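INFO batch 0412 | record 1 of 1 | parsing
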Amino acid sequence: MLILDSFQTLLSSFQFYFSSFMFIGLGILTTVGRVSQVLLKEKFSKRAYLLTEFCVEGLRLIQYVLFILIGRNIIFTINNLWQTIIQGFQEITYPQIVWDLVGFLIIFGLYNILIFVVFSKRNTSNIMEKFSIKRYLVKSVQLAFILGFKNLFLIPTSIIYLLIIFKVI
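INFO prediction complete | emitting tokens
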């Protein structure tokens, strides 16, 4: 039951994430920033790298606020945002949240393992060979794939998952 409930929450997280182009659009922007940091690391000045990091994290923060605002269908004010978060926390039952967090750890642990298996060095090398990508090292492309996938899918859906189990959305 724990695993089935956890997968259902994961499915709900994906449904919510894909319900708005705004969520995906912000996810794409953060992914482009993160992948650029990996693949163009040598070409980035320290200032450009930090600016990219600031933009990525700023966009991610905006995305999270939008998750809450749209998930609760509220108009943005700081008071409404905090009131919504506090109200959600007050609805939590403590034995249930422990099991929800265990389910979260299992599901996203498996999710991470799957990402590392799919984007192994061997698979990455095969993809690079198939598409004649010779400009970058396999290790750099592998890291770009992993961070790209995580920034586009895993991180946003894990945040949505947590917002669901903490009854914020």
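INFO post-check: The chain has a mean pLDDT of 90.
INFO record closed
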